[in-house]
Amino acid sequence: MDEFSLGFTGENMHYGTPANPEVPTQIPGGSSSGSAVVVAAQIVDFAIGTDSLGCVRIPASFCGILGFKASHGVISCDGVLSNSQSFDTIGWFARDPSILHRVGSMLLPVLPTERRRMRRLIFADDCFQFSRVSSQRTIPVINRAIESLSGYQQPQLVNIGKFIASNVSSLKGFCEKSLNSQHGVSTLKALSRVMISLQRYEFKTNHEEWIKTIKPRSAPDVSERVFAAINTTHENIKTFYKVRTELRAALHSLLKDDGILVIPTVPDVPLKLESKKNLTSEFQDRAFVLLSIAGMSGCCQVTIPLGKHDSSPISASFIASHGEDKYLLDTVLDMYSSLQEQVNIASNLPLLPDTNGSIDASELLKDKGNAAFKGRQWNKAVNYYSEAIKLNSANATFYCNRAAAYLELGCFQQAEEDCNMAISFDKKNVKAYLRRGTAREMLLCYKEAAQDFRHALVLEPRNKVADLAEKRLRKLLSS
After folding, report:
1. In the chain, fewer beta carbons within 10 Å around the N or the C end?
2. What does the pLDDT look like over 369-381, one tens digit per residue?
3. 3-class DSSP state of 163
4. Cα–Cα distance, 195 to 297 (Å, whole number)
5. What single DSSP character describes residue 22?
6. Boundaries of each Amidase domain copy (predicted)?
């Protein structure tokens, strides 16, 4: 492991580096590198690790295996030499989800039999901006996996940075001034800075006397982190703990007992060996942003391998509310085979350009849908719009356009449902009100249809289509 559990890479100047079985030329990730490597190499079925700032999650991702970080405090850390008590958690690695689940049933507190819950997957779309791995290798795979499973609601999107900004008031003093469009990004960066500051404060409290007495010789990057902690003064300690408390409450209000937040685990594929020389602060900054959500809240998180990108392992992470560890492990067990099936399918498909390229993949699919619509190929248009929605399920235009195609096909109930979605994302979408009004009129729901056309007129008083339809329905309803 990395010295003092303070490294990303898994390299150790005293004992060497465990070889990453998936890509021997790349680092295994740290700090619990040895545990991850023996699992990935099929030497053992599972191994225990500890996670403070990502020590299980990073090596699980880099070695292409499952890694689970338990909720903070639910498993005793007695006997663990503490890095920082606000973050130290027990975690474990496995290749098989049933073994991951079985280890959890042994380590986690025994809970009464739980009721069956509908699962809500919530994609933190802003977090995917911090990853250089195409989101097409993760989001569509997860979306398609749950389509074949029962018990899952339609996935949602959330800007988690803006959500945190609105619900964690104690974090505002740490945010840099930024444009509104970057407000969420600024909040996530502030959260990661608070996490690092709190970790340094507790590490200093735990180890300052020993380090100053023994003066241990460590690798340059570890020494840098050690002395950054020892030499830092902290004036906002109470506020750091307040951020932690408020964040846990905020995530519980979002996720409750049935929600799962989906984020990238790490910002990039594994780095080459001897990468300490090239481990940029920019990579670390992006990594800490992703790791700080579960780290600062103490929520449980699982790293799930999703195949490879450019021959390197990639993953996504699921986060559940603090204490919902069993629920999260149940979800992984339920989804895993379907996820891996979709990974295999996706690995054989060409990768469209997306937000990391010059063209947004969902917009490209929308344009293809528009072309098919103009060519009166209604079913084809529906298929293109559906694929666009899988990539970006919070775009009102995609739903509104698909509703237009459904109207042409005579699928009025589907058109109404799509317009409901479009309006939920854009309350001023005139076309959505017009198309929902048309669908409702065809379904003989005249009163509701008239209301839709009147609403369209409020937004566009000179809209002739809405005016004629509203008058026609008013006359029909009065007769």
Report:
1. C
2. 998 899 989 998 9
3. helix
4. 10
5. S
6. 1-96
